Amino acid sequence: MERYSDIEVSKLAGGYYDLSPGISIQEIIDRWAKSNEKLYDDVVHGYFSWEEVWPYREFSRDIQPKYEGDETLRELEQSIQEQGIKSPLMVLIGKNGRALVGEGNHRLFIARKLDIQQVPVHFEFRQEV
Q1: For residues 80 and 55, what is the distance between their CA atoms, to the nearest angstrom?
Q2: Residue 41 belongs to a domain with what CATH number?
Q3: In principle, which of 63, 78, 105, 116 could form an S-S bond with 111, CB 3.0–4.6 Å?
Q4: pLDDT confidence of residue 39
Q5: Which helix (H) or strand (E) holds 109?
């Protein structure tokens, strides 16, 4: 079974993993697309900059107009500001070389708005995205 043998994986607080030395989301996508076997039992966790995750958001449109009138999103922003992002963003990665933020698009938008440098990301590997 192929593993990321050149990557040190160390457990961090909260059950997330630091994929070091600095593997990019694109590298994870490329390795999964080229692999014939499962990696990490189909799940990888890590911290990434919001800038790196941004291109994979589900909706390319800006949610700012919706955000302005939505009390729930303002409450989410306040919670993130006070406690950080408690639930990781879920990025789905397909063997077809595509990736998509399947859950956490609003958290990603708020991370950008608050300029939170690192966001927790949970990757799930699929045949297609």
Answers
A1: 21
A2: 3.90.1530
A3: 116
A4: 56
A5: helix 105-114
